[in-house]
Amino acid sequence: MRAMVYRGPYKVRVEEKDVPRIEHPNDAVVRVVRAAICGSDLHLYHGMMPDTRVGHTFGHEFVGIVEKVGSSVQNLQVGDRVMVPFNVYCGTCFFCARGLYSNCHNVNPNATAIGGIYGYSHSTGGYDGGQAEYVRVPFADVGPSRIPEWLSDDDAVLMTDALATGYFGAQLADVVEGDTVVVLGAGPVGLFAARSAWLMGAGRVIVVDQLEYRLEKAREFAYAETVNFAEHDDVVVALKKATDGLGADRVIEAVGAEADGNLIQHVTAAKLKLQGGSPVALNWAIDAVRKGGTVSVLGAYGPIFSAVKFGDAMNKGLTLRMNQAPAARQWPRLLEHIQAGYLKPSDVVTHRFELEDIAEAYHVMSSKLDGCIKPLIVPSAA
């Protein structure tokens, strides 16, 4: 089959790989019909994440058709159109039993630190991802779900991570009626977090970024006020002035390891790899939220330390909440919102690439070219 293959920082290409096979009676093999590139894929592409191995296939956002099932699979049949959450999980361990699918204890040798994720670094289990024609799906009875007939592939693929994660971020922030919510980052996850804040009753939503085309999307798609941090000497001061000097009730950090806005932090994290990620956006979140407020962290960071202003968080009495989203847990409510017409996930899609053009797709997204916000990948066998 044809599959995206990582060859080192900023180097990806499409190569022939063996079609995955059933390795366990609980496995399924899915023929991919849509995949996507996530902002967190760029951390791998840029060489930011430890144990990202040459030869690995990325892609944790994908939907497809079930091609094969193992002998123990009960809930799926060959020919089913399914969406697959980005988390790999067993469904039975201590954490899965509590709905913490992203913290599953049985799918990753590094499980004390992180669960399993398709197409991410080997620190998350080393599972090949969906930027390929086929992908092996372990624990097929507990992860994938049949896609309703009324839901398009383009909408469904965004359920597998970006939309579910954005919605989860607003949940973590404990948004209640009338809250002022600041979202840092106007990528797909930030846009979905902003829309989700409205669904949970926010009275005001402010999105912060530095790229004008993404801020325009935030105004159009998420009905948000916007702040371009590049236009302010201190974006925290600007946000405080915009919130009666107190700060926002909730701040959602949807940027992660490669946050820009502070040269020293960016260089020590993104260039010198001395931190697990640049904490610029996270520190802005801590400073911009009001005392007693909540900071929700969605951005991805590496496993080593980052220079986070923990003392300020403690002294302000903040609640800091964070996790990888348990994507499938959000699906029932999100499907209700989509079917009711409150949300159309594919409205954030700006580009579509054939799998054979995956190197160009990564270049366009990484370099923020051509107004790129969310690119989809279409395998030739789709």
Automatic annotation (TrEMBL):
Gene3D superfamilies: Medium-chain alcohol dehydrogenases, catalytic domain, NAD(P)-binding Rossmann-like Domain. InterPro entries: ADH-like_C (IPR013149), ADH-like_N (IPR013154), ADH_Zn_CS (IPR002328), ER (IPR020843), GroES-like_sf (IPR011032), NAD(P)-bd_dom_sf (IPR036291). It holds the Pfam family ADH_zinc_N. SUPFAM superfamilies: GroES-like (SSF50129), NAD(P)-binding Rossmann-fold domains (SSF51735). Residues 8-369 form the Enoyl reductase (ER) domain. Its cofactor is Zn(2+). Keywords: Metal-binding, Oxidoreductase, Zinc. GO terms for molecular function: oxidoreductase activity; zinc ion binding. Belongs to the zinc-containing alcohol dehydrogenase family. This is Alcohol dehydrogenase GroES domain protein. It comes from Cellulomonas flavigena (strain ATCC 482 / DSM 20109 / BCRC 11376 / JCM 18109 / NBRC 3775 / NCIMB 8073 / NRS 134).
